[in-house]
């Protein structure tokens, strides 16, 4: 949440150096993307529209992007998919708690608040990118009812990495 294509500033070039063509679309309501109606299905359909018939060897989705990728994977048909801390299988209580936490981030007015939340774990340049992307996001895109999303299994999963209980999902 509150991320955009700038989040891939390290991984994108590393994959390109290994011969991959890298596409890093902003989900609707994030970064430079248009605003509009927001739901996991809308984000997935946007991915399908953006990527089109492009052959995908490797698809990587983080957080909300992981949820959108999981929904779109059957249409995109990547050879392999990697999900980084995907926003899957949330209980109703987790959904409410997560929404409240992310909504609170929108009240921040100083980068120091983000630095404190992340506990000094991020390099200063990455922190600055994250702060900028926070303000490119439409607050209305904070997901609602994410726990209601039902995913069809995708059989070519390369990896799923989830955040630890104290990381807060960053």
From TrEMBL:
GO terms for cellular component: membrane. GO terms for biological process: acylglycerol catabolic process. One of its GO terms (molecular function) is monoacylglycerol lipase activity. It comes from the Bacteria. Residues 3-135 form the AB hydrolase-1 domain. Keywords: Hydrolase. This is Alpha/beta fold hydrolase.
């Amino acid at each position: 949440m509150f991320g955009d294509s700038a989040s891939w500033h390290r991984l994108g070039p590393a994959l390109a150096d290994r011969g991959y063509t890298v596409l890093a679309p902003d989900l609707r309501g994030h970064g430079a993307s248009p605003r509009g109606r927001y739901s996991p299905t809308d984000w997935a359909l946007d991915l399908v529209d953006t990527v089109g018939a492009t052959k995908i060897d490797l698809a990587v989705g983080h957080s909300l992007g992981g949820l959108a990728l999981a929904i779109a994977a059957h249409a995109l048909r990547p050879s392999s998919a990697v999900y980084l801390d995907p926003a899957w299988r949330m209980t109703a209580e987790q959904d409410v708690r997560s929404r409240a936490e992310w909504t609170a981030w929108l009240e921040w007015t100083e980068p120091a608040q983000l630095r404190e939340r992340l506990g000094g774990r991020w390099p200063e340049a990455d922190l600055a990118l994250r702060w900028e992307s926070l303000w490119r996001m439409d607050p209305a895109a904070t997901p609602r009812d994410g726990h209601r999303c039902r995913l069809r299994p995708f059989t070519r999963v390369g990896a799923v990495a989830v955040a630890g209980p104290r990381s807060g999902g960053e």
